[in-house]
């Protein structure tokens, strides 16, 4: 290496102190991207998610959205479980794409991801499961739920193309708030994949408004500040928060995190368009020893919640 | 893949308002964390502009940590190597024995300023856990440290040190049960307890503002070094060298020199058993960009984007990601990142011990090894400044075990 020419530059101590100019350091509160041109187009198209929520609204029913991890307890059982969930009253299925570092998930879904990964599940396999499910069910919307990195490594273009072809309707990227969605949105739009956002009790009104502008499909309202499966559901609190979010967000609201029983689901149905149930179901499936047992567990878990929701909505209508 | 980035005129302009260093960094977190991160960003921006906060920080850095740390000319080592002069920035002389305390003092004071009564931290080797427990004791705050179950077994002395300092150490049994999983678990705690809890991240990783804030608190190292070089040697160094785990000691040294283009910059990553072995932790040298722990950066993953287990003889470098600013410095060409194997680091550890009477941390030994390699290629009148980020006392048991010696 040649000896570089040498100058001693003395930088004023102020800049040196933090090495930052004031402009670089303003607060980080949300600034969202402008809508991409494709977005309006994809929104105007009636996809499976929109159709489902429109039908729910028309019939006055509350949507039921179970979450399961693709490939857990066994990849060979996943589509059978999905069909059983639909038969038991699921309106949308959130299919978890397992990730090694599920930062927003509690122990139940962490373990579920670990089991699926240990058995070799990957994004290819997830899309294969969707394709296989879709060959027998053309109606039920499927939303892939997971973290960005598996898709980053797979490649966005490739993912979006294959996912749309397999019959995926939307994606919920847990670690991709609207502020970071600029680069992925055009690709998803191009393939008519809805991007479902998370909102939570800590979302500021300003961010809720921006989210409302970007929302596709539905908005997943996280019922408390915490991780999936936690025992922190405070119904009164959620009631008020959802009512506030409602004023801003016009897309359907699905509420989830910590819902374990039909009673809780019914209580939330008063405010929400749909309820999402994940950990409690995943926990039941994990106990199953074979596919038949898993299918039975799925049905036994979901059917009573469906009946309770329907009974409640009939009461409301009457 | 990402396109090469043009080097900017001014390296001090990063990150942008949302924490991006070029295409890296950002806030890739679940919605629930966006508000706490915004609150933290505002609190930090206020604190760093508050002369009273800065004065208190400076006071503690001087009287509690023992700053400034000296620059020591390793003359016998330089002579033995037979090339450029090797200078050491002695972060090993800090209270608790590493650079980590520069950051925990700053974040601890910020926690108190924000009215938080409980601090949490993740730790791998236990150094950041000890530095966090230390500051918590000093400020009278409750402290919970998340540590992978595997690491707890490997680093029992540091676990005991944390307990002596009054911290609770929580074993993390998810995933690979190491540092990355400890970070996940600390984030889960934070999102749940944010009303009273401050999360002190131990390196320049995580979502914005952490990479910026941790850099700023560690940049005291480079600021001092820049002044000391001029005072002691009448010039800036020809090259800087530091080890890179998450990259906090490295960015701390590098940052104040980034606009001094004539100063070459080298980051030493842990090449473990070799970059081709699959058993290493060299995220920049051998990884690809992706998203982990709230930021976009270089990662070590399998082809499906699942984060892989890493290996290094030094637990503190055993991390599958790297701070986003390093990813950006790599792509702009401002810094070079090289792999140093376990064996090279061990050899450097011994050579420094024998020539200078200094036991370096195994992490820092990676920087020493790179400084030695570089010195061999440069004339005697050139100056290489290496960050001796920590002392090796914590590693003596590991070294004995590796070399088959029973104590
Ligand atoms: C002495 C020492 N140096 C370096 C590191 C690596 O961290 P970083 O790359 O953030 O400086 C550690 C981490 O534990 C450490 O203890």
Description of the structure:
The complex is a heterodimer of chains A (318) and B (407). With 318 residues, chain A is α/β, with parallel strands linked by helices. Chain A has helices at 13-18, 37-44, 48-59, 75-87, 107-118, 123-134, 148-154, 156-166, 185-190, 205-214, 235-248, 262-269, 279-286, 291-317; strands at 63-69, 93-96, 142-146, 170-173, 194-195, 197-199, 219-222, 253-256, 274-277. Chain A has a single domain (38-317), classed as Alpha-Beta Barrel (TIM Barrel), CATH 3.20.20. Chain A contains 14 helices and nine strands. In chain A, helix 12 (262-269) links the parallel strand 8 (253-256) and strand 9 (274-277). The longest helix of chain A is centred in the last third of the chain and has 27 residues, at 291-317. With 407 residues, chain B is of the alpha/beta class. The longest helix of chain B is centred in the N-terminal third of the chain and has 18 residues, at 31-48. The model of chain B has no long low-confidence stretch (mean pLDDT 96). At the A-B interface, helix 1, helix 5, helix 7 and strand 6 of A face helix 1, helix 8, helix 9, helix 10 and strand 11 of B. The complex binds pyridoxal-5'-phosphate (PLP). Pyridoxal-5'-phosphate is lined by residues 98, 100, 125, 127-128, 203, 243-250, 316-317, 361, 363-364, 389-390 of chain B. Pyridoxal-5'-phosphate binds at residues 98, 100, 125, 127-128, 203, 243-250, 316-317, 361, 363-364, 389-390 of chain B.
Itemize the secondary structure elements and their pairings.
The complex is a heterodimer of chains A (318) and B (407).
Chain A: H1 13-18, H2 37-44, H3 48-59, E1 63-69, H4 75-87, E2 93-96, H5 107-118, H6 123-134, E3 142-146, H7 148-154, H8 156-166, E4 170-173, H9 185-190, E5 194-195, E6 197-199, H10 205-214, E7 219-222, H11 235-248, E8 253-256, H12 262-269, E9 274-277, H13 279-286, H14 291-317
Parallel strand pairs in A: 1-2, 1-9, 2-3, 3-4, 4-5, 6-7, 7-8, 8-9
Helix pairs in contact in A: 4-6, 4-14, 6-8, 12-14, 13-14
Chain B: E1 20-21, E2 24-25, H1 31-48, H2 51-65, E3 71-73, H3 75-81, E4 85-90, H4 100-113, E5 118-123, H5 127-139, E6 142-148, H6 149-154, H7 156-164, E7 168-172, H8 179-193, E8 197-200, H9 210-218, H10 220-233, E9 239-244, H11 248-254, E10 264-272, H12 283-286, E11 288-292, E12 295-299, H13 324-332, E13 336-341, H14 342-356, H15 362-376, E14 383-388, H16 396-402
Parallel strand pairs in B: 4-14, 5-6, 5-8, 6-7, 9-10, 9-14, 10-13
Antiparallel strand pairs in B: 1-2, 3-4, 11-12
Helix pairs in contact in B: 2-4, 3-14, 4-5, 4-9, 5-7, 9-11, 10-11, 14-15
The site of pyridoxal-5'-phosphate (PLP) has 21 residues of chain B, from α5, β9, α11 and α15.
């Amino acid at each position: 290496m040649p000896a570089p020419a040498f100058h001693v530059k003395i930088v004023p101590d102020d800049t040196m102190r933090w090495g930052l100019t004031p402009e670089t350091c303003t607060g980080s509160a949300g600034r969202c991207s402008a809508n991409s041109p494709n977005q309006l187009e994809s929104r105007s198209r009636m996809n499976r998610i929109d159709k489902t929520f429109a039908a729910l609204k028309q019939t006055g029913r509350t949507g039921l959205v179970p979450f399961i991890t693709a490939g857990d307890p066994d990849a060979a059982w996943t589509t059978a479980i999905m069909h059983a969930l639909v038969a038991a009253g699921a309106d949308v299925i959130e299919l978890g794409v397992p990730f090694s570092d599920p930062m927003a998930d509690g122990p139940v879904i962490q373990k579920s991801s670990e089991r699926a990964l240990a058995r070799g599940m990957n994004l290819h396999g997830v899309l294969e499961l969707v394709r296989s499910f879709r060959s027998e069910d053309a109606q039920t919307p499927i939303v892939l739920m997971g973290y960005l990195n598996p898709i980053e490594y797979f490649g966005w273009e490739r993912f979006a193309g294959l996912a749309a072809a397999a019959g995926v309707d939307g994606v919920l990227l847990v670690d991709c708030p609207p502020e970071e969605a600029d680069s992925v949105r055009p690709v998803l739009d191009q393939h008519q994949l809805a991007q479902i956002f998370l909102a939570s009790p800590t979302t500021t009104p300003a961010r809720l408004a921006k989210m409302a502008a970007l929302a596709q499909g539905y908005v997943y309202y996280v019922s408390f500040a915490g991780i999936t499966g936690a025992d922190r559901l405070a119904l009164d609190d959620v009631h008020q928060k959802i009512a506030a979010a409602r004023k801003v967000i016009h897309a359907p609201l699905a509420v989830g995190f910590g819902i374990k029983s039909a009673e809780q689901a019914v209580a939330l149905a008063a405010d929400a368009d749909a309820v999402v149930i994940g950990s409690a179901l995943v926990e039941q499936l994990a106990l199953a020893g074979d596919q038949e047992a898993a299918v039975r567990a799925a049905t036994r878990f979901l059917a009573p919640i469906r009946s309770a929701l329907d009974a409640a909505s009939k009461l409301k209508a009457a | 893949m990402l396109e090469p980035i043009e080097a900017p005129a001014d390296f001090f302009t990063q990150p942008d308002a949302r924490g991006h260093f070029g295409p890296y960094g950002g806030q890739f977190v679940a919605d629930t964390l966006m508000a706490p991160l915004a609150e933290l960003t505002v609190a930090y921006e206020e604190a760093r502009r508050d002369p009273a906060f800065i004065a208190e920080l400076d006071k503690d850095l001087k009287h509690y940590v023992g700053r400034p740390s000296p620059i020591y000319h390793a003359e016998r080592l330089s002579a033995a190597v037979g090339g450029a002069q090797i200078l050491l920035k002695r972060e090993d002389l800090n209270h608790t024995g590493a650079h980590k305390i520069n950051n925990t003092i700053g974040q601890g004071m910020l926690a108190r300023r924000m009215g938080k009564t409980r601090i949490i931290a993740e730790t791998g080797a236990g150094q950041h856990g000890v530095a966090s427990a230390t500051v918590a004791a000093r400020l009278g705050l409750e402290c919970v440290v998340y540590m992978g179950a595997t690491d707890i077994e490997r680093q029992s002395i540091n676990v005991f040190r944390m307990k002596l300092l009054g911290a609770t150490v929580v074993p993390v049994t998810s995933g690979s049960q190491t540092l990355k999983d400890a970070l996940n678990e600390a984030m889960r705690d934070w999102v749940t307890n944010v009303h009273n809890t401050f999360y002190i991240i131990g390196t320049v990783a995580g979502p914005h503002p952490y990479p910026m804030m941790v850099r700023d608190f560690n940049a005291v190292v480079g600021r001092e070094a820049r002044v000391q070089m001029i005072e002691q040697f009448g010039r800036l160094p020809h090259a800087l060298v530091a080890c890179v785990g998450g990259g906090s000691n490295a960015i701390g040294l590098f940052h104040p020199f980034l606009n001094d283009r004539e100063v070459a910059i080298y980051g030493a990553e842990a090449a473990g058993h070799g970059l081709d072995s699959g058993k290493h932790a060299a995220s920049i040298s051998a990884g690809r960009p992706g998203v982990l722990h709230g930021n976009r950066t270089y990662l070590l993953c399998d082809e499906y984007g699942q984060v892989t287990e890493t290996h290094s003889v030094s637990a503190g470098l055993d991390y599958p990601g790297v701070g986003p600013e390093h990813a950006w410095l790599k792509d702009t060409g401002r810094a070079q990142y090289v792999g140093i194997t376990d064996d090279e680091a061990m050899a450097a550890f011994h050579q420094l011990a024998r020539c200078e009477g200094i036991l370096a941390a195994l992490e820092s030994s990676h920087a020493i090894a790179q400084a030695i390699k570089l010195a061999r290629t440069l004339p005697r009148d050139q100056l290489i400044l290496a960050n001796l980020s920590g002392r090796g006392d914590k590693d003596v048991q590991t070294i004995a075990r590796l070399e088959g010696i029973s104590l």
